Structure formats: structure tokens, C-alpha cells
Amino acid sequence: MTYDFLTVFLLVCATLLPVAPAVVLYLLERKTPFGKIKYWKRQLVAGLLFGGVAILATEFGIPVQGAVLNVRNAAPLTAGLLFGGPAGILAGAIGGVYRWIATFWGAGEFSRLACSIACILAGLFGAGCRKFMFDNKKAAWFYGLAIGCTTEVLHMLLLFLTNMDDIYTSYTIVAICAPPMIACCGISVMLSLFFVALVGKQNGEKRTHTRQISQIFQLLLLICVVTAFVATNLFTNVLQTRIADKNASSLLSLNLADVKKDVSEASDANLLKITKSVAAKVSLAATREELTALLTEYNVAGINLVDENGIIRESTRPDFVGFDMASGAQSAEFLCLLHGQQSYVQSYQPLSGDSSVSRKYAGIAFADGGFVQVGYNAEQFQSDVADEVRLAVKNRHIGQTGGIIVCDENLTIISDNAGHTGETAIDRNDVKDIEAQPGTKFTANVGGVNSYCIYDVSEGFFLIATIPVTEAMFSRDIAVTVFAFMEIIVFAALFVHVYFLLKKLVVDNIHKINRSLAQITGGDLNVQVNVRENEEFASLSDDINSTVDTLKHYIAEAESRIDRELEFARQIQRSSLPSVFPPYPDRKDFAIYASMDAAKEVGGDFYDFYMPDSAHLVFLVADVSGKGIPGALFMMRSKTLLKNLAETGIEIDKVFTEANDALSENNDAEMFVTAWMGRLDLESGVLEYVNAGHNPPLIRHAGGTFTYLRTRPNFILAGMEGTRYKKHELQLSAGDEIFLYTDGVTEAANKENRLYGEERLEKVLSDSASDPKLLCAAVRADVDEFVQDADQSDDITMLCVKFNADAQTAELAFLPDQNSMEAVTDFLTEKLEEWEVPPKVANRAQVAADEICSNIVYYSGAKNVQIALLYSKEKLTLTFTDDGTPYDPTAARDPDVTLSAEEREIGGLGIFMVKKMASSVAYRNQNEKNILSVTLDIAK
Amino acid sequence: MKIEKQAAESTLTLAIIGRLDTTTAPELEAELNACLAPVQDLIFDLQDLEYISSAGLRVILKAQKVMNKKGSMKLVHVNDSVMEVFDITGFADILTIE
Known about the structure:
The complex is a heterodimer. Chain A is an alpha+beta fold. Chain A has 23 helices and 29 strands. Chain A starts with a helix and ends with a strand. In chain B, 43% of the residues lie in helices and 32% in strands.
């Protein structure tokens, strides 16, 4: 079948018609707010759009050879596969219903039901495939091809099913429509899927090189199905062809035999009649002249008289006289007339006496022995029986259009059922096997139609039975086509079904197990794999579960062992740090406190302090890079080394220089230590210190606030051999404090990942009481408050030293009430007597405390009051801290002390007295607290 | 603080032992209020007074003002610590100190 250019162009347009809206709608969904609107609204839009495309396909059908081609089913399929079930079903319903009613304005009546049903089914197919086969994802293009073709095959099959009483017309339409429509529908759906996949290629799309089980299975299944399809079709085709062939042959042969019989019977009867007439007029003794006269009278070819011995006695042909009838097969047949048979008619054949001549003979026996033979030649008997022959074939049909053709020896038609007399029946040059045996089927062009033929020769006529090949093979073609179509449907259904079974029984379960395994490998060992749909997966699930349980058991065991070991290590590390406070209970000239909280069980931080001699205190804080066991081991080594060096009494810069050299040696683990070491001369108050890359400590001079002691640090310890360390000096006086820490404090992080920071540390220290232990506790509490319940990420180490020189200190904190003043007096009395403060100074201190405290207690509204005493050789310092109304007594105007008793006011006199008696009075307001320091000189 | 009273006719001698400060001054004030009416000559013996604060000064000043109107008041045996306070505050000028 060939198509003209216009038809091909229209077919291409019809194929591309659903592709364009598919791509456009898909892009709209992906790139514009259209994708954000509700699912059902989007389905409605897609359904209406593709329903419209289906209507267009119906309206613009392409007429080819009396049939109308269209690509209607591609639209609902595309909608269902690409945009969702409801869209496909809606589009299919629109297209199907429209096709039904379109009959009223010109659409074909014959295929009405088939086309409508097919269109609705196409929508359902698209929807079903998307939901059940592709898990609501876009299908690959080759599936589109397969689904499109299969749907169109179903359409063709429906055409047969809905027109069972007119199979011939159905077949004619299907033969025209099927190839282009199946191809176009498949290609159209395929192109839609292909282009959508092309424009919508997702970034995250996985491109795995290994194929999934289902893909491999699909491929193998497809190969099996296609092989089975081809094989069964080939077999059916061969079988049906054989049957049709055989049927055609027998049909032709039977008809030919009938006609041949009619012809021979007619000519036999004719010749016998003439022979009887001749026999009545002659006897065995008749002369040649008499015979020749009869020859002319009856217009026959020859007359022979045969005697009782079977010898030709007389003949119209002189050379036959004396011929023995028994000497030839043809002539011997007539000897039956000598044995009682009255007549015999022979078929047209060469003569025994002269094989160059063909005759038809009849004989009649004489009553007194012998018989007469009368012979016809072809022309004579053909003209005699021509009418009967014509009649015999004229109304004879083989099948619908086949028939019998009677020809002469030149194959010129004498008679047929179509009135082609005079034409050449078959061109001898075309058909070589015309020379074949009569009764053998051959194929030839008869009257322009390729036909099966069988010929035979009867009485000199060529009788050819013909039937067109298409007609002979019609039943086969229908059978094969319908069979093939049904097989496509059946195999497609089989393919889908087997695929589903595999997916449900194997692939889905594997996915389930994989999901559980992913959770397990992700760390959640409590996940149970539970796939019990069949025995194999149930046993696999059980195996995995028991493996995980065993693993869990081992992990727990290993964890507890490691925990135990780490706990030991932690204890060893802990016990290596001085932990008894106060460490030197008889030393009043300094106070020291330190703490280390490890993040993990064993940390890399450490602190240490020792007194190489009674006049010096060495203290340090250090941070080893690395945590856990390695950090702890390196820490132990560093700590021991530093202690050993420092206790020899060498300068601390030398301590660091030598420790660094020793630690740098064989430092294969590439670990390092940052450290800050101080050496305080307890007599002079001189603090020497050296910093190896450590955080700056904070220092607070008596009565002041904490500030960072920033000096340029030297390089870390164990970083590079030969590093020189430089010591710095600082003069401390009684009451000064220094606070050392590691970055675990300043870099403590809360849940929002913000760091504690140096500022906050500085503030909390400045706000806290002047006592090493309280300072450390205050910082720790503040850090805890900051990080809340976030995990501690690093070791938190602090060390605080307070230098008292030879000073004594004491502190009293109280909540103001009516008994406070007595308590203050008692506290002072006790401490001043204990320290043996000269009475004069002691009395002044009492007066000062009374004046200031009574002010605070009665007027400030304070909730908390604190009195700190510091007594050294030179001075006694009283520091009053309260959280009452801010008030600076030093700024008050002095009262006039020259007035008479009557004019005197007592207000303001107390503070004035304190100012007069003290060597210095200093006030500051810090952190909403009044802090007043009163210093009394001992010597004055 | 302890107060030892010694009354002879219209002369009252109060020996103040201990501290005269915010806590104890009200006691002295109460004592004076109670027994000052018939007194014409008031004598404070401050030999054993450890120290005095402004609260104590207030009571002394108040007594001085009362005695100015009806007789005399004097302080005896004032020690250094207390004298320092009287000096600083100018009380030395308005009190009779022997």
C-alpha cells in the first residue's frame, strides 16, 4: 500500500498533535504557579485539554481508500500516563462520547462502537498503567510505544468484535487502517513521553549503571513474549496457508472435474448418436465410396469397419485397412465390442495407427460380428458441443469471483463466466508451469488478478479453474490477523500480569527490606525487618533480624568494655591532677583552686601546680590537641615532663624550652600542647609567666575588675623543636587574682552553636566573689546556663590563684534585717582580734563598718550585702558590696563641723568620719552593685 | 554595751562600757529618756567606751541639747579612739570634755 505526500503529511501532523500540548502542560506544571494549584483542578485541566485533542483527531480524520485514519487514542493515553489517572479517564470519556455522537455529522457508522469504546479504554489504560505499573511516575518512552501500539491493536480487534456479521468489511478496513494507525498511535505516545523526559530531566535523577531487577526481568519477559508471539504467529500463518491452499486446490479440482465430466458426457453422447446413425446405414461389407459419402454426410473425420477378428476391413483412410486393432493401446480399447458390448466411446486422444493425429472415436457393434468406428477431429466435435460447454462454465462460480475458463489450445478464451471470449486467458510466457501436469495448482495472472489456477484438458478444450489468491487466502488472512491482534493483547496482559507478580512478590519486598536495612545501617539497630508475604522473605527477614540482634549484643558488649576502660583511664587521669583543696592548708599567703571536666571520658586538658620551694608557687593550665586515649597519654607525658622540669627550680622559660624539645622528639602522632605557666614569688609578689599558644588569662587587682592579660604568646609546645620561649613579669599585690582556663570555657557552644565567648567570661568573673573556688564555680554555673542542654563539646578546665601576700582575708555575706548590725560587729570583732589588729585601727574599722552598713541596711533597700576584709602589714581594707539603690557616699557634701550643738545635724556625719579616718575610700557601681572599699593604714 | 548608772542628788554619772554604735545607741537613748528629768549635771564616763559611731554621737548631741537648757553635761576619761571621733566631727568644740 502506498500513500501520497499529503496523506503522509497529515498523518505526521495527527501523530504530533498530542505531543505539543503534553510538553507545554508539563512545563507549565513544573515551572509556573500552575503546578501549585490543587491536584483535582490540574487533573480537570489536563483531562479537558486532551479530551479536546481527541475531538480534533476525530474531526480531522484522514481518508485513505475508503477508510478514515486517525490517531485519537494517543491523547487519552498521553494524559493518563503523563498527568494522572483522572486526567486520562476524563480525556478518554470526552473523546469516546464525542466519537459516538460525531456519527450524526459524518463520522463512520461502521466503526462507531469500536472507536468509542477504544477511546474510553485508552484513557483507562493510561490511568491504570501510570498507577499500577509506574508507581505514579512518568513512564519511559519505550513503554509509551508499547502501550500506544497495544491500545490501537485493541481498537482494531474491537472493530472485528463489534462487526462479527460483516467480517469481510471489517477486515478490509482493518487491513487499510491497522499499520498506519498502530504505528502513529505508538509513536505519538512515545514522542510525548520522550520530549517530556527531555525537558524535565531532573538534576537529582539517578543514573545508575546497574539495572534494577524489574528492568532485567522486564527485558527478559519482553524477549520471551515477543519470541512466543513470533513463533505462534509463524506457525498459525503456515498452518492457515496450508489449509487455505488445500481448500483452494480441492475447490478448483472439484469444479474442474465437474465441468470436464459435463464436456465429455456431452461429446460422448453426440458422437454415439452419429455413430449409431452411421451404423444403421452401413454393414461390414460397405465399400470405401459408401463410407466416404457418409463421411461427408455426417461431417466426421473417419469411418472404419472392423471385422470379427479385430482387423480393419475397410476405412476412409486407405492406409488403415488391414490394421490390427489389438496392436495399439488406443485401438485395443474397442475390442470390447467383439465380446458382446454394443457401443463404446473413447476420449479425444492420439491414434494407435497414426500418433500424429488425435481423434475421438465411438464404435457400434454389428449384430453379425464386427463393428463400425466413427471418429471426430477436435474442430468437429468442439463445434458440435460448444453450446453445451459454454453453458457448463458460464454460470459456474468458484468462490465469489473465481470460475472456470474454457480455452482452445492457444489459450484463447472460448467461454468463461465474465464474457471475456476471444481474450487470452493466461500469458504462457508468464507461467511456465502451465506445462505442468493437468490437475496441479499454479499461480497466474488471470484477467489482471493474481489467481490460483488448475487446468485440465477435455475433448481438446483447455479447462482452467481459477480463484483469486486474495479470495483463497481471505480466511487465512482474517484468522492470522485476528489471531495476531488477540495475541498482542493477551501477551501484553500476560506481560503486565507477570511483571506485577514479580513486583509484588519480589521487588516490593526487596525495597521494604532495603528501607529497613538503610535505617539499620543508618544507626537505628532497633528496626525490625518484617516481610512475611512468602516463606522466602519471611526467613530472610528473620535472618536479618537475628543478625542485627547478635550485632547489637556485640556492640553493647564492646561499648561497655570500652566504657569500662575509658572510665579507668579517666580515673587515672583524674588522680594525676591535684584534687585536694586547699592543697596547702597552712599557707595563708595564697589561695588556689582548679577543676577539669572532661567532655569525653578522658580529656586532653590538664592543670597542675607545685611549690619548688616554700617561696614560689608554679601553676599552669594546658590543652593537648586530641581527645580520648591518645590525648590522655600525651597529656600524662607533658604533665610529668613539665612538673619534673619545673620542680628543679629552673626559670620557667627554660622549662618550656626544654619540655618543648623533649616533646617534639618522636612526636609521630603530631600532637601538640598549648600551655600557660606562671611562677609566683610569694614574698615579692612578682609573677613570671610564659605562654605557649594558650588563651590569655584574666587578672584582677584587689578592688578592681578582671581584665585579660594579653601578651604575645610563643609557639605551642611539641610543635617545633628549638622553639624559644620568653617569660614575662608582672607585679602582684595582696588580693590580686589570676584566672586561667582552656578554650573549653570560651568555646562552649549552645544549641544554636553560639560560643560562650571571652566577654561573657570577663563579665561573670568580675561580678563574682573574690575567692578562687567561688570564681571557678561561678564560671562553671554560667557556662552551664549558657549551653543549656547542649552536649559538652570540649574539656572545661579552670585554675584560679589569689595572691594574699602576707594578708589575711575574711568575708561575710548577709541578708539585711534588724539583727544584721550586731552580726557585722561580731564578725569584725572576731576577725580583728584573731588577726591581732592594733586596737586603734580595729576601732576605726568598727566605726567605718557601723556607719556604712547601717546606711546600707536602713536606707539602700539592698537584698544582699557582703563585707570583705583584707589585712596585711600595711593596711586593712574593708570592701562593702550591696545590691541596693545606687549611691556614692564619697560624692556627698561634707557637713559643717563648726556649728554649735543646737545647730548641728547628725546626717552625713558618719560618712564624713569614715572619710577622715581612712587612708582611702573608693566607690564604684558595677553590675548594678555598689562597691565601696575603705582602706585604713596600720601605721597612721 | 553596758551602762553603769551612779546617781547622787541631781548629778547622774553614766559609765558606758563597750561600743556605742547603731545597735547600742538606742539603748542609751532610752536610758536617758527614762532618767534624765531630775538630772541637772550629767556626766558620761567614757573610760571603757571602745568606740563611738555617728549613731552614738547623735544620742550624745541630743543629751547635750537637753542639758544645755537645764544644767550641764560633761564627758570624762575620753580615750584616744573616741577623742579622734570627737575631733574629726567637731564635737570636741561643742562638748565639755575633761
